[in-house]
Design brief:
Elements: E1 2-3, E2 9-11, E3 15-17, E4 20-22, E5 29-44, E6 56-64, E7 86-90, E8 94-114, E9 124-135, E10 149-154, H1 156-159, H2 183-190, E11 194-199, H3 223-226, H4 232-237, E12 254-258, H5 263-267, H6 271-291, E13 296-301, H7 309-322, E14 328-332, E15 342-343, E16 347-348, H8 350-369
Parallel strand pairs: 10-11, 10-12, 12-13, 13-14
Antiparallel strand pairs: 1-9, 2-5, 3-4, 4-9, 5-8, 5-9, 6-7, 6-8, 15-16
Helix pairs in contact: 2-8, 6-7
Amino acid sequence: MKISKEQIKWYGRNFDNKGIRYFDFSNSGFEFCFKGTKASCKILSDPENWNKENYGVLGVYVSKLSNVRDYEGKSFWESFPEECSKKIILENKENNVVLYESEKEELVLIRVLKISEAAFGYAGFDFLEIDGKLVKKNYKKLEKTDNLKIEFIGDSITCGYGIEGIYMKDTFTTSQERSDKAYAFKTAKGLNAEFQCVSWSGIGLISKYVDASIDIPDTTITMPLLWPYTDKSASLRLGVEPEVWDESRFSPDIVVINLGTNDASFVRKEEGRRVLYVHNLRVLIESVHRRSPNAKICCCLGVMGQDLCSSVKEAVELFNKDFPAVKIKAVELPVQVDEDGIATDWHPSEKTHGKVAEIMVKELKELKEW
């Protein structure tokens, strides 16, 4: 029995092109529940554009249920497994993926999330096929005004870059990337919130990450050029004009901005560059506010370096002078420490992400009630 994209629940930003639904950003994906013996799907990707270290990667999460009531009316986080059942590496243009298989008929809830980022191999849903019966859910019932919605805008830290690798030992691959173990995912879980991520490794507001020997900014991609669109990167690879993201599809109550780690590689404490960073962050904050006027905003930075933390605070204060009614705060995060482990390319370990999430849960609870 074939199941179309319209029959299942979707998370994160996605867009349709020629009958395929593309979901690329970290933690975007879909879920469905069925009673049967097998579920498989066809996922398209673009491995020809990448070496094998940078293919797209999906995480599959399977929860066995005792009855249909365990599915109906439940939130995303209820019965969510601690670990994915399997990782799928999208190494072919057309990937026929077995999501679940059992000798006996069972009732299972399956979630499929993109755990690698949009900067590398994309994922396009063609169809789902099940041996059994699809269990339908009334998602409208879950759309209550008190369901917290969070949007995370960030860089490699938000993507969960290198979490399953070790600093000075491993070279980065998308297989090490675990957005489902990063602070954004853990923060949303801690708040029982719906969420989406717009994140890209190496990205900044005035420059991508640059080596100390380079004295000009790398502006091949910056967040102001990425964030307004549903999925600019995959759209351009497919040869279609990027669509502007429709905020009504996901209207956040809180927007978290975690940007500056890569900008710091270019700023290098030079005042002119620092002021430009402050300006660009101030402009992005206003863009977020104008798109989502009812959202509260949290700007955070620090886990990989605190050089620009005071500049984040300055940008927040400048914005708040012009928009005093908007609830906004700046949060300085503690720098990671060796005893918590260091992941690939000096990125935070899962333990560090957990500590950051604890801080962010507390800060966002306060912001929510503010």
